[in-house]
Design goal:
6-stranded mixed beta sheet; 154 residues; two-stranded antiparallel sheet; M1 Pyruvate Kinase, Domain 3; alpha+beta; 3 helices
Length: 154
């Protein structure tokens, strides 16, 4: 997921600039012309014509052009976009890890310690994502790690 950092009403057919900012940098609040996002590789990942969805798909857009590290999208429908909302890039290979260090901590400190039966893994893209998670859990808890059922949330 990619964090967006502002709350404004976005109107149909506006062109909006998407630009990178650190996930913890909230000085770029954005407005109805500029949206800050924390996905560093957005510019490299999308192509003209790709769809970009915001806020669980509630706001749709299409990439119109890319210039100087900024992605220009056309908003296709009206909607409200709040702080730290997600961005979805259908059909685009995203270079973000499925499991990050916060997830690993939660899996070990809560999941494995409490002998959970299931873990639902959000944003699973590849079989290797699950294989890597399984290997990690076995390394951390050889007894219970292999017993945890993994559910792919795609």
């Amino acid at each position: 997921m990619v964090s967006l950092s502002f709350l404004k009403r976005i109107n149909n057919l506006n062109l909006v600039l998407l630009f990178f900012t650190q996930a913890t940098d909230y000085t770029h609040l954005g407005d109805n012309k500029r949206i800050a996002c924390s996905y560093q590789d957005l510019y490299k990942s999308v192509e003209v014509g790709n769809r970009v969805l915001f806020a669980d798909g509630g706001i749709s857009s299409i990439v119109k052009r890319k210039e100087n590290g900024i992605v220009v999208v056309q908003i296709l429908n009206e909607g409200k976009l709040g702080q730290k909302k997600n961005m979805c890039l259908p059909g685009v290979t995203v270079s973000l890890p499925t499991i990050n260090h916060y997830d690993e901590y939660d899996i070990v400190e809560f999941g494995l310690k409490n002998k959970v039966d299931y873990i639902a893994v959000s944003f699973t893209r590849y079989l290797n994502d699950l294989k890597s998670l399984r290997k990690f859990m076995i390394e951390k808890d050889p007894e219970h790690g292999p017993k945890v059922h993994l559910i792919s949330k795609i």
